[in-house]
Amino acid sequence: MARICRRARTIMAVITENGDFPSTMSVNTINTKCKDTNNEEKGYDPFQNRNLDQPNSDIRSFANLLKSSLGSGILAMPAAFKNAGSIVGIFGTIILGYICTHCVYLLVKTSQDVSRVSKVPSLGYAETVEAVFATGPRPLRKISTATRIFIDWAMALTILGACAVYVILLVDSVQQIVDFYYEHNSLNKGMYCLMFLVPILIFTQIKSLKYIAPFSGFANILLVVTFLICLYYICDEFPHFDSQPKSIDIQRLPLFIGTVIFAMEGIGVVLPVENTMAKPQHFLGCPGVLNITMTIVVLLYMIMGILGYLKYGEHAAGSITLNLPTKEIPALMAKVFITLAIFFTYILQFYVPMEIVWRNIKHRVTQKYHNPAQAIMRAVFAALTVAAAATLPRLEQVIGLEGAFFYSFLGLIAPSLIDLIFRWERGLGSYNYVMYKDASLIIFGIFVLVTGVTQSIREIMRTL
User: Fold this and answer.
1) Cα–Cα 20 to 30 A to 397, which of 69, 130, 386, 424?
2) Does CATH place domain 53-462 in 1.20.1740.10?
3) How far is CA 283 from CA 178, 194, 263, 405, in A?
4) Measured between alpha carbons, how far is 51 from 60 in angstroms, rounded to an integer?
């Protein structure tokens, strides 16, 4: 989950440090520049027109992408495996990892190609979608601006949904500690949410990234220590491989898919990383920064998932830290560390959707009311994330719902759709294989969305 927070830090670093061509640059001129595919100048190279003050090397880009893809989401992998089984979980993680990586490839490749067509150095996610529609089939061009706004809001809601997941983890971790030391307390989940509401409302009023960054750095250290403590407990008295079922009821498979996609999907950070590379042509290809990074990510997530599942089985919680014995000092430290880390990274994560929302509504607010309007906006959305956390029950169910609903669209459906639209009039390959491949990915994404959301809601209703 803090993986998404690291994405937020990377995205905002791109926006603030590379003012010439930030990942959220406006593409309002595309509609007037690209009315016909015959006017595309193939000689334009967007890579040569990026004026970056401090471009990142391949190694640094690899580190940024890896850092943004690895976080506390890995601690949810054992809970994912309990909805699939050991063997199905291993192969399922590999297959989903390949699909997610290919969809990221489609997004980046399409962004690079449409940047060349539109004659702009770089584009962010929403701007890529807008540019694809603006330069695609004529019937779609008139809705290009609407698609950018839609993707902007989808991204904001996705991250806000992750913020609600963070609040649930905060509450579960603190409640577990308090219940252990004060067994007969009268505090319920709603009361814990109210306790967190006050500091969340205060810290989310911070509008400058430079004041948030130190908290993020501290959170990263806490996450590393927590991860090591979890590995220590998982590997202690490790059970035999056959101790857990190799497969589970197929009806629970959508929960596995949603959780894995939530934990693994890094669709929001790839373009900011690629846009700041000194040699962006090295991002794709074989081996390429993307393929190397995602191979490592898939292996680590698979290993953590199978080890945690074999250790805790059906009792694996939404975060493996909740399975650790609270009475032991290292385990207690892990629970405290994850609480602090998630709180600090919540603040950083919250920054990004507020920038997106404010960019889309500030033109409706008079200049002199900008500051109070931002304060109210931040307070309202922060309160909504806490209210959502107080309403929704178990952590692993909400993670599955978030992954199935939001990340299946942004990570699977949208990249495949824009690739299909962009190439519709530019060639679909031999025997139209691009059309069949992208259509298959879109259908799979819709399947994940519908079945994952349905099963998650059933599980949530069952436990209410």
Assistant:
1) 69
2) yes
3) 47, 44, 22, 28
4) 18
Structure tokens at 217: 């750095």
**Under 8 Å between Cβ of 132 and 110:** yes
Q: Which two tokens stand for residue 297?
A: 């990510």
How would residue 29 be classed by pLDDT, with cut points 50, 70 and 90?
very low
Number of Cβ atoms within 10 Å of the Cβ of 312: 22
List, as one string, the DSSP characters of 130-174: HHHHHTS-HHHHTTHHHHHHHHHHHHHHHHHHHHHHHHHHHHHHH
* Distance (Å, whole) CA 451 – CA 83: 14
Dist. CA 374–CA 355, nearest whole Å: 10
User: Could you tell me if 314 and 86 are in contact, meaning their C-beta atoms sit under 8 angstroms apart?
Assistant: no
Residue appearing with tokens 């990892």:
97
With beta carbons less than 8 A apart as the criterion, state whether 7 and 269 touch. Answer: yes
pTM: 0.82
Find tokens 């500051």 and name the residue: 371
Q: Two tokens at 327?
A: 């009475």
Max Cα–Cα distance, the chain, nearest Å: 74
Q: Which two tokens stand for residue 88?
A: 């199905």
Q: What is the pLDDT of residue 32?
A: 37
Domain ranges of the chain: 53-462
pLDDT at 393: 65
For the chain, the average pLDDT equals 83
Give the sign of the dihedral formed by CA 92, CA 94, CA 99, CA 100: positive
Q: Taking a C-beta distance cutoff of 8 angstroms, is the pair 169, 162 a contact?
A: no
CA 185 vs. chain centroid, Å, equals: 36
* Contact call for residues 248 and 85 (beta carbons, < 8 A): yes
Amino acid occupying residue 158:
T
262 is written with which tokens?
């939530």
Q: How confident is the model at residue 9 (pLDDT cuts 50, 70, 90)?
A: very low
The share of the chain scoring above pLDDT 70, in percent, equals 89
CA 366 – CA 124 distance, rounded (Å): 28
